[in-house]
Structure formats: C-alpha cells, structure tokens
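Narrative of activities, Objective 1.

The group set out to show that a structural description can be obtained from nothing but a protein's sequence at a throughput compatible with the screening campaign. Below is one input-output pair from the validation batch, recorded exactly as produced.
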Amino acid sequence: MATGAARRLPRSLRLGFQRAGLVECGAACPPAGCAQRLPAWGGLQGAASAARPGVPQVCEQDAVLRWKMALWARQASRWCHLLKAACAAEFTGRLKGCSSTAQACHGFAPRALLSSPNDVLLWRLQAYRHVSVGSCSPPDSAKDGSFSSPKSNLPLPVKQEQAKPETLPDLNEKTLYEDWDDVPPSSALEEISEEEAVQIIAEPLLPLHSSTLRDYVDHSETLAKLVHLGVDLSQVEKRQKAGQLLLTLDFEKDIRKILLFLKDVGVEDNQLGPFLTKNPYILGEDLEALETRVAYLKSKKFGKAEIAQMVSRAPYLLLFSVERLDNRLGFFKNELGLSVKKTKDLVIRLPRLLTGKLEPVKENLQVCQIELGFQRNEIQQIVFKTPKILTASKKRLKQTFDYLHNIMGIPHHMLTRFPQVFNSKLLRIKERHMFLTFLGRAQYDPAQPSYISLDQLVSLPDEVFCTEIAKASIQDFEKFLKTL
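Output recorded for this entry:
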C-alpha cells in the first residue's frame, strides 16, 4: 500500500502529464528502474539523490518526473525545429539531403501506442539523439518494429490501427521546381557545346565616348521616347552638354513631369518635340522653380494664352529666374519710356527680348538716336510698332535708312508712321522704287496726287503692286528687272 501510494503521482503533476499526452488518466508513476535507462547528462539524477539523502522517496520521484517532463519538452521542441528546417531547405544540395533524411525517417515512425509514459519518453529521447547526430535510422531494438519496453496492454485492433506509418512529403528536386514554375538556373561554370556557344549573341558594348547620340538611342529608353515625341537629336547634340544631360535623365522620373508641366502652361502636343529640340536644358530644371516663374508672369497680368505664346516663341524664357525676368521688364520700361501696358504688349509680340542679350538692343537704340537722327518719342513709336528693329543688324538698318531718307526723300516723320519698311529687304525697295520712277509714278508725299504709301510699296505682292500701284502688267515689271 505504501509503495503503491508512493508511486501515485500528485494531482498537479498527473494533470500536467495528461495535458502533455505522456500518461493516461490514473496512470501510475514510472518504476524506479526507468530512471536508469535515461541518458545520464550531467549526472543530474544522481547528484539530486546524493545531495538530499534524507528526502522521502515520493519527493524524489516527483523531482525526477518534473525533470523528465521539462527535458522532454525541450528536446521535443528541438526535434520539431530540426525536422522543419530540414523540410524547408532552399538549395538543391540541402533538398537532396533532406529528401534522403525523410526517407530514412519514414520507417522510424512509431508502430503502436506505448502503454507506459516512461517507454514513450525513452523512445523519444532515443529518437532525438539519433536525429541530432544526423542519422534518422531507428535503433537496433526498433528495426523489427518493436521496442525494449513492456508489452502494450492495448487491444490488437487498436495497435494495428495506430501502427500505420506517417507519410512524409516527397522532397525531390523535380517536384519542387514544378511548384516554383521555374527552370533550374544554369551555372556560369557549366560546360556547353560548341553549337550552343556559336548561337550566343553578345550585345555590343556602349562606347565610353561618342560625338553623337545615335550610338545610344537603341540602348536608352529616354532617348527612344524623345525621338517618338519629335525631338531632333542631331540638333540637340550640337548644344553644349545637352547630350550628356539627356543620357543622365530617366524618362518616367525626370522628363514626364516636365512634359506635363509644359502642357499645363499651354504648349501644344505637336510643339513639344520642336520645343525640346531648341531647349533641352529645361528637362534638367527643378519643377518648383519653373512653376514659380510662371506664377511671376501671372502676377504681372500676363494671361494664360499670352504666357503660352511667349513660352512657345521663346523656349528659353522659363530658364530665367524671377529676378532676371523682373530686371528685363524694368529695362525696357525705363529705356524706352513705355507704360506698363505697352511694355507688356512689347514683350508679348517679341518675347525673345527677355531672353536675348541686351547689348545689341542698347546699340540699336543709340544708332536710331545718334546716327539716324530720330527723337526719343519717335523711337518709342518705331519700337512699339516694330519691335524687331531692336534686334536687327545695325549695318542693314543704316543702309535701309540711307536709301529711304537720302535717295527716296522720305522724311523722319513718314518713317515713324511706317516703320515696317525697316523690316523689308533693301533689294525689293530698290526694284519697286526704280520701276515707279521709270513710269513716273514715284510719289510719296501724302499732300500730292497719286500718293503711294510706304506700306503699299513694300507689303503688296508683285501682281497687286503692278496692277494697282504701278498701273502696269507683271510682264512689264519682269522685263524692267532684266535691265537692271
């Protein structure tokens, strides 16, 4: 009775073993001899017994059972992690090893439920020791399907039903590659045949230095898309460092946002290509800075259509900072003495005044005032009606004025009324004036009959000029030109 009572587990430990699946409800404590069959790792059991010789037998057995329970939990956890790691190997070599290990462990599955908790613990400890050293083959006592444990008290049908081995997944290489929907990668050191080597086509290397963008178009998505937009790369590469800029830009990251900005400003789709051909540098500008410059123009009462016209006709306009644009507008307002509205109209009609050099403008203003003899107010009228006179060639300007004023006798006030004559070719003025003089109809004084204005002299086509102004046929005019 005393012995039986001593072998009974305490209620707390018995419930713990039941939840762990080690014993059934009401199972007895393992016999004292089972502790000797456990691996004496560190001599824990012996040390415990030797340290406390006076401890009752029941307490000693409780301590041993607690130690067994903790040891099994830790070793079972390690065993499960080891099997999971073997099954989840990623590389081919480890997969092959895992496959062979799984096949070896396949026959190591328990054939029947063991009746004794100590037998279960002993078998699992032996299994862990075999797995931990890299071998999953069953021990000698289990090769025939039995263990060195007492016979099970379970009925035979239950034992046969429980004896069915667990089936592990087939971890062969072929199945895994089919699951991955991929072909096994070939090694760079793999030997190939001469026929396969001949079929390999190596792409040509990009030149490190080139004077043309043509060598990079086939290899650059950015250049290819710019060509589709209508950009003339043969003209872009002539501009300083423009080709290097395009090669460093990404179309989706850098260029797309600039194109959308230009469309918002008002540049037409069919004008994007010519615009970028003339000014590829805008692709490297900061988007926030561009928006700031457009906002400045709007603050100066420029309309959206007017800004679109200015940007399209002067592609470099948005490359100028706000301070520089403000200085340019102030220069023309002060130098010409124009009002704010007239200054705005002037730059709308000729926006390149804001982007060009100011030296030619200053020189032409001095030529008109000093050499040609126009007054300040006359210069204001001439420039406002014909802004191109500010950027015209000084030589051509002086030659045209000399012929009109000294040979044809046109006074300054008449030239101020019709300043468009300075934009005409000097040869055309000479031919028509000489033809009218030959016919006796060269009359440029508005107070005289048969008056011919300078606008009619230079702007009408040849057929209209001959029939309405010269009162002659076009054939007569062509014959006269041959005599010159």
